[in-house]
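Checked the freezer inventory, then went back to the computational side. Two predictions to log before the end of the day. The first one is the construct we discussed on Monday; recording sequence and C-alpha cells without edits.
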Amino acid sequence: MGKDSDPDYFGSLRRLLILISAGLLLALFLVWRIDNARVEQFRVTLLDRVTPGFEWTLRPVAATARMIADLRAWRRVYQQNEELRREVQRMQGWREAALQLEQKNARLLALNNVRLNPRLTYVTAEVMADAGSPFRRSAMVNVGRADGVSDGSTVVDGLGLVGRIAGVGERSARVILLTDASSRVPGVVLPSGQRVMVSGDNSVAPPLDFVGQAEALRPGDRVVSTGDGGLYPPDILIGRVTLGADGRQRLRPAADYRRLDFVRVLRRAPPPVIEGPGEIIGPLAAQPDLPPAPPEARQ
C-alpha cells in the first residue's frame, strides 16, 4: 500500500481537539451569561481559584495596553500642556480662597468639637480584569472576604465614586460600576441642594432622575452622595452635571474608568455589641442636697 493510503491520525486528532475546545468555550460562554445566584457563586469561586494563577499573565498585557495608550496620546501632549497652563492661571486666584476656607472650616470643627467617623477604613485593591459587556459594567479586584470586604462595600478611586461590591470571594470580588444599569445612587447637587438619583444605563454619562427643579441645575455643578439608605457613605464626590446629546441632564462621573488600575474599597467597622442595659444607661450622678423652700413658695 502506498503512502497516500495511510490513515491520517494527526488530522483526526486535531479536528477532535478543535471540537472539544469549541464545546468548552461555548459552555463557558453560556455559564457566564446565566443570571442566577448559584451560577454567580460558581463564577466567583471559579475566578477566585483561577485568577491568582493568571495574575502574572495579566501584568504584561496591562503594561502593553498602557504603553499603546501612551503612544497614542503623545500627539495631544502639547495641547494638554497649554490647557493646563491656562487652568493654572485660573486656579491661582482660587487657591488663596480655598486656603482661607480650609482654615475657617478647621476653626469651626474645633469650635464644635466635631469628630469624623473613625469606623470607616479602606483597603487598596488592584483591578485585575474588566468583566464588562454591552449589558453590564463591572470589574474584578484582588481583595475579598479575607481582607474584610463584604457585599455592598463602597468602591472609590482618587477622584470619586466608582461603584459597589456585588459578589465576594475569599480573595477576589466583583465591582458593579456606577454606570451599570442596576446601579442607583442617591445624590445631592451643589450648590443648589437639589436631591437627585443617579441611575446607571450602561452609558458613559448616566442620567439624573427624580429632579425636583431641573432649572436649578447648571452644567458643572458637583453631585455628591447623600448617604440615604446606608449603602454609600455621605459626601463622596460622584461627578458633575452635564447636558446630554438628547437634551437630558446627565452625570459626568468623577472616576476615571479609562485608567482604573487601583481602587479603594471602604470597610465599615461592625457596630459595638451591647450585652446589657448597663452599657446604655450609666450610673446616676448623686444629686446635691437642696435647701428647703421658703414658706412663701410652699403656699
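The second is the one RB wanted added to the comparison set:
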Amino acid sequence: MLKTYLSISILLAGIVSMHPVMAAGTAAAAKETQVLQRIRVQGTDREMGMGIAEFPPNAEKPRHKAIGPEIVYVLEGEITVLVDGMPAKVVHAGESYQLAAKDIHVTKSGPAGAKTIASWVTVPGRQFNVFVPK
C-alpha cells in the first residue's frame, strides 16, 4: 500500500513539475480582433475597417498575412512585429506601425500584454488575415 502511495506521489510530482516547461514552449493566443466599424471606400470595390485587439501577456498572433494594407496604433503595452525578411520591431504604447498588403508576419505582446487599435483596407466579404504555415 505504501508503495502505491509513493508511486502515485512521484508520478503527480513529475506531472506538476513538467507543466511549466510544456507551457513555456507555447505562447498564449491573442484574442480575435473586435471589429468596431466598416465603411465602403467610394469609387472602389474596397472597404475600410477599424478594430481593437487585446493580447494577454506574452501572447502572439500566428504567422499570417493580410490581403490589404494595415496601420496599427499601440494603446497599451508593447508589440513585437516580426515581418519575414525584416529585423524585429518593438512598438510601445503611443507608437504605431504599418504593414503592406501581403506582408507575412507574427505579432507578439510583451510581458504586460498589449492593446491595439487598427485600421485596414480589404475586399468586402473576404477574410482579411490569412494564416501562412512556415
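For RB: The chain has one domain: 28-131. The domain at 28-131 is CATH 2.60.120.10 (Jelly Rolls). Let me know if you want it refolded.
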